[in-house]
Amino acid sequence: MAQRILLAWELGAGYGHLMPLRAIAEQLRARGHGCAFAVRELDGAERLGLHRFGPVYPAPLAVGRIRNPVRVQTSYASLLHNCGFDQEDALAGRLRAWRELMILSGCSAVLVDHAPTALLAARSLDLPAAATGTGFTLPPPASPLPAFPGLRLGANVLTRNEEQVLRLVNAALGRFGAAPLTSLRQLFDGVLAGLKTYPELDHYGLPRAASYLGLPDFSSGLEVDWGPSGEKRVLAYLRPFDGLEPLLDALARLPAQVLVRIAELDPARLAPYQRPGLVFIDRDIWLRQAVEGCDIFVNYGAHGATAEALLAGKPVLLLPYTMEQRLLAERARQLGAAVVLNGKAHQNPAAALRQLLEDDSLRAAAGRFAAHHADQDRRRIVPDWLERWLAAL
Q1: Burial of 153 (0-12, 13-18, 19+ CB in 10 A)
Q2: Could you count the other beta carbons within 10 Å of the beta carbon of residue 32?
Q3: For 10-19, what is each residue's pLDDT tens digit?
Q4: Of all helices (H) and strands (E), which one includes residue 213?
Q5: Rounded distance, CA 58 to CA 37, Å?
Q6: Domain 4-214+378-392 belongs to what architecture?
Q7: What is the three-class DSSP state of 16?
Q8: Is 70 exceeded by the pLDDT of residue 68?
Q9: Is the backbone peptide bond immediately before 240 cis, with ω within 30 degrees of 0?
Q10: Span 157-191, pLDDT tens digits
Q11: Which of 19, 26, 35, 203 is the most exposed place for a label (fewest CB within 10 A)?
Q12: Looking at residue 197, what is its pLDDT?
């Protein structure tokens, strides 16, 4: 029986959420199913051509200031608070919009990549749901939801934070006659969860029974030609952040061939760092092919990009600036395959880059990770997982 699936993305940024939805849409179409999209970034959806698979709607998002934002995020509950789960009317309004969008799309099921309000809406409409994401966007099922690793918190802090969010969630659900949640972990109850990561890169670093799918092969973009140079090759996949200028200066001075993929930046800011052997690209590149040809990889701690480099056996320099990125960077450092800076402007990345190029132990650790997962057919990750869910429907 043909299904019509709403593919939803609400929180976060970048292609790490859109690429899985496009890959899923391709598989749905191949199986005779239909889909529609509700996504956070319409420009990215346009560049990826999501409209070729079904109608694309803007996801209902939180706008305006967050009331009493949590200064230090402690758990997924405080993350939700800072992402619009802080005011009843605003949350209920988004929940209503998600419900009406699902009804308008005529969907028979919902599949999300970090869209908690969409999961609430699906629950309130009794629509079956699945969720794909990383260990950060799909937290371990505990009550209360566990603290982010590295934070020393009493259980009372986690319980109090969760109770505040839970009270608003249940008030919003009550406006539609939906049953209340007894804990935030119920947000994911009955949802087929597929973690597109590996146990070693789970942000929480905790054993769990969830299915680790691995990183699907989202091959697309420009193929990189490194050329015949005998120099070391450095691939940097970046976006603007506080410590960008010191990093670019270090890359410009590094005796190596350097390719920097960066967009969303005035080219005039890049002009001081131009030199022979350093190339800036503002278009999408075929990341899997590019990292296979480099010696080291530089990033801010995005899960997909970091995992791609480690799967190619390449050590990484990470400069995280969000909680999600910091947790992923710590997992990579624990593997022994990463050097981690804090992403602030006062950091000096030159020594870190030299260490990455010269320290064979970092390369060996990345090689061990790559060898451990070398037998996986990453092209089968999405179709196999999706097939299981469709069969259950």
Answers
A1: middle
A2: 9
A3: 999 888 899 9
A4: none
A5: 8
A6: 3-Layer(aba) Sandwich (3.40)
A7: helix
A8: yes
A9: no
A10: 899 989 999 999 999 999 999 999 999 999 999 99
A11: 26
A12: 95
